Amino acid sequence: MPIFVIQEHHAKKLHWDFRLESGGKLKSWAVPKQPPSRKGLRRLAIEVPDHNLSYAKFQGEIKDGYGKGTVKIWDNGNYSLIEKTPRKIIFNLQGKKLKGKFALVKADFKDKKDTWLLMKLS
User: Fold this and answer.
1) How confident is the model at residue 66 (pLDDT cuts 50, 70, 90)?
2) Comparing C-alpha atoms, which of 77, 109, 105, 70 is closest to residue 3?
3) What is the mean predicted confidence (pLDDT) over 44-70?
4) Which pLDDT score, from 0 to 100, does residue 65 have?
């Protein structure tokens, strides 16, 4: 089963890096608020560049440049893909903190093409 990881990232602004393994990489989104833990909650998720799969285990200090700050693993585990289209990804998370059915849905707020909504469905 593919993996997921959520890294709490204390950079210029606190956010959570939400990552799903896909095609040998980690598809990645920056989530400004803690990921949703109960049904009905939605969070903005901004798509960022893919990361290497090895980054799923990273915890520590980024000392310079992009992402400068402290990173720690907030949750991780496996996921199963239910549906994937260019505008929607539905999946089940099996993590330590987050479990259940989730979705990432393309939002396109104010002509920004990298915006999604992360939501817990069940």
Assistant:
1) confident
2) 77
3) 92
4) 79
Q: Which residues pair with 44 in a beta bridge?
A: 117
CA end-to-end distance (rounded Å), the chain: 20
CA distance 99 to 97: 7
Rounded to an integer, the average pLDDT of 76-99 is 97
Here the tokens at position 13 are 């602004």
Q: Give residue for tokens 């998370």.
A: 93
**Total number of domains in the chain:** 1
* pTM metric for this prediction: 0.94
The amino acid present at 115, given as its one-letter code, is T
Name, in order, each residue with C-beta under 8 angstroms of 102's C-beta and a sequence gap of 6 or more: 36, 90, 91, 92, 93, 118, 119, 120, 121
